[in-house]
Amino acid sequence: MRQKFARFAWFVLAVQIVVILWGAFVRASKSGAGCGEHWPLCQGELLPRAPELPTIIEFTHRITSGLALVVVAVLVVRAFRLFPAGHIVRKTAAWSGVFMIGECLIGAALVLLGHTALNPSLSRGITLSIHLINTLLLLAALTLTAWWARRDPAQPAASVTPSVRRSLALAGAGLIVAGVVGAIAALGDTLYTATTLAQGVQQDFAAEAHPFVRIRILHPILAVIAGFYLVVAAVRIMSAKEAGQRVWYLGIALIALVVTQFGIGTLNIILLVPIPMQIVHLLFADALWITYVLFAAEVVRPLAAAERTEFRLAEAAGQA
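Predicted structure:
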């Protein structure tokens, strides 16, 4: 039963990622006002008649968001039925439900406040930032629900020093800050599109430039700093004698994703942030965040000793 629940939890996470990517397409295609300032109705109707393309794009996002809400609700109910009181999977599933409700409320606020399409207000940057942070927390909760569903994590390992915990916390905070700045920078690219790289640079440093444009130059700087710190922290943790095999594998994946993101981000800028590249960049950003969450979880709450032995025996049997 736990294996089926874990598979379902990974499916719920995948659904959420699809919703996130489609939401980015809504923003990049300037279709956020496709349903007007109406919520939960679209253009004042339950089902819009003869909709134009922006309306179709926005309405599709609402449908997929509704699906995401339903599957998260099912996940929470199943977690409370399958796992005993006090189990960590109950807690992570419950937080998934809280953050999913937050996603719906923030999404509704974006529409009702008119923080969509070509709105350049600074308040839109604030709601967008809150939306991004809530989304990352939702992904983290869903990831941990799926990760711990098949096994009971041990209590925090005695070997996890305060400096390691601090490094993990700073690395996570760095990813969140870089993500928030990146979301605002992407909004600046949407509202103030440059036709050449030189024009984009001129926009970034123009005295009259909008704050969303000025912040575009800040995103790659913060991304490099956060990525470099994450790599250094991962290598340090992986080098410790107590580091398990899973920590090592996840650390390698983490480093590879950081390097890949640097490459995608650079290509994204050179190509003047076309929509497909924006979607790819966001996809790998989500993958990086999920891998970081798994890495941190395995460092702080690794597999219990008995389960780790069972895992190694299974590996040995497979190799034989």
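Summary: The chain is about 75% helix and 0% strand.
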